[in-house]
Design brief:
mainly alpha
């Protein structure tokens, strides 16, 4: 399995996780109890933080791939000279 497919599978798993956690957070908020509302808001923040972390990791991977391609091009040019 290529790295790109693994990243897509993990992003899909994260999407399912985010929906389920957000749903549970909304259930907490809907109870109307002050403590449950606080917990629900905290639970709703978790998918946001996790999403940001996944986005940063994927972005880092793409930048590293681009950097590797640039280094490879420079190495090829230096070998030609």
């Amino acid at each position: 399995m290529t790295a790109r497919r693994v990243a897509l599978v993990m992003a899909g798993a994260f999407a399912v996780y985010a929906v389920l956690v957000a749903w549970r957070g909304w259930d907490f908020i809907a109870t109307g109890e002050p403590l449950a509302i606080g917990l629900g808001l905290a639970v709703l923040v978790l998918p946001l933080v996790a999403g940001w972390l996944v986005w940063r990791e994927v972005s880092f991977g793409f930048h590293m791939q681009e950097l590797g391609e640039r280094i490879e091009m420079v190495d090829e040019r230096s070998m030609e000279e």
